[in-house]
Structure formats: structure tokens, C-alpha cells
Specification:
Layout: H1 2-24, H2 28-49, H3 56-74, H4 82-105, H5 114-117, H6 122-136, H7 144-163, H8 171-197, H9 205-226
């Protein structure tokens, strides 16, 4: 098991490096070779190591929707193809909904969630949601206005659901997943800034977006692996 995990982890690391080099040097061939494999390897690592069996189906569905989002965004041509961009956002919206469902429904300890006990933690997340959307709003038009708002709500909701796991699962599982949710928020926020705020994007945007995105998905997978029945 350890040898198999080591080999898969090294393979995943190699794919991460290839993807980041593709982004850094704007080499579409490297990206096309690496990006489709990111969520596939994460799903394999999850299946081989998950201690909890009852949530395998919804977790794999979340990974699948993330993979669909990856594929559509990869073919969107740097987000220029609106149809593929919308489809990619739709894939990730479904992934966020699945993550929210998983984080809320499945727990190790039958107790009230952290946010029920400490609702004050809603404030910074809601402040970020409102503030960031208002920051982006001048660059939005047409269907982008409601679509980005709905997706932003799902993204922040996913991170809140991850925070709500505190006290309901082991601390290691909580920390991995909550950290992953924050990296997800950072990654998608950079996508929005790159597309809607800067006219020509910001320097090395693809590199930083993919670095934080792959970190997010890997951390979430690690946390899910550690959750027990």
C-alpha cells in the first residue's frame, strides 16, 4: 500500500509540474497532456485510501464534476470562448454543491456544527462574498452578472460547510479540508480577477490559478481520506 501510494503521489507530482510548466510557458500541449489527469489521479488516490466507504459515490461525483469543469475551461481558450467558460463554471458549481452536501451530511460525531455554535464566523465569509462581488461587478455584463453571483455563493458556501465540520470530524481531516476550501476560494477568485478585472489578465495568472487549484483538490482529497465512519 505504501509503495503504491508513493508511486501515485510521485506521478501526481510529475503531472502538477508538467501542468505548471505548461501554464508558465503558455505551452498548450503540456496543459492538454497533464490537466485531464489531475482529478483522475486524485480520485484513484481517494479510492485506494479512503477509510470511509459510505460517501464514496458523492465524493467521486464531486471529483467528476470538477474534471468536467477542468475540461471545459481547458477548451475555453483562456476563457475567451464564452460557451465553454459557462459550461466550465457549471461543472464547478455542481462540484461545489456536492462538496457542500458531503461536508454537511457526513460526520464522525453527531453534534451541532461549528457555525451553529459560533455563527459570528459567517461574518467574514459573507463580507468577502459581498465585497468581492462588488469589486468584480463593473466588469460583468449580461449572463455573467447572475452566473458569477450564484457561483460565488456556492464557492463561499463550500468553504463555510468545510468550516462547519470542526468538532464533527477528526482535527486532521478538518484542517486538510478547510485549508483546501480556502485554496479553492483563492484560485477561483484569481480566475475572476484575471477575466473580469484586468483587461489583459495579470502576470502568470494561469500558473498561480492552477497551483492553488491543484493544492485545493489534493488537500480536500487528503481530508476526505482521513474521515472515519
Amino acid at each position: 500500500m505504501k509503495t503504491r501510494n508513493l508511486i501515485l503521489t510521485l506521478l501526481f507530482s510529475a503531472i502538477v509540474i508538467v501542468e505548471l510548466l505548461g501554464r508558465l510557458y503558455e505551452n498548450i500541449i503540456l496543459e492538454y497532456a497533464a490537466k485531464p489527469l489531475i482529478m483522475i489521479l486524485i480520485a484513484i488516490l481517494f479510492l485506494l485510501n479512503a477509510e470511509k466507504k459510505t460517501f464514496r459515490a458523492p465524493v467521486l461525483l464531486a471529483f467528476f464534476f470538477s474534471w468536467v469543469g477542468d475540461m471545459f475551461l481547458m477548451f475555453s481558450g483562456g476563457y475567451d470562448n464564452e460557451m465553454f467558460f459557462f459550461a466550465g463554471v457549471g461543472g464547478f458549481f455542481l462540484a461545489q454543491c456536492m462538496y457542500i452536501f458531503i461536508f454537511i451530511k457526513y460526520a464522525e460525531i453527531k453534534t451541532r456544527g461549528f457555525l451553529i455554535k459560533s455563527p459570528v464566523w459567517f461574518i467574514p465569509f459573507l463580507a468577502f462574498l459581498v465585497g468581492f462581488y462588488l469589486f468584480l461587478y463593473p466588469g460583468l455584463e449580461g449572463l455573467m452578472i447572475p452566473i458569477i453571483l450564484i457561483y460565488a455563493i456556492s464557492l463561499v458556501g463550500m468553504s463555510l460547510a468545510a468550516l462547519n465540520r470542526k468538532g464533527r470530524v477528526g482535527m486532521k481531516s478538518f484542517r486538510w479540508i478547510f485549508a483546501g476550501s480556502i485554496f479553492f476560494v483563492i484560485s477561483d477568485s484569481m480566475i475572476a480577477i484575471d477575466k473580469f478585472y484586468f483587461e489583459d489578465g495579470f502576470a502568470n495568472a494561469g500558473f498561480w490559478i492552477m497551483l492553488t487549484y491543484m493544492t485545493a483538490q489534493y488537500y480536500i482529497m487528503k481530508g476526505l481520506i482521513l474521515e472515519k465512519e
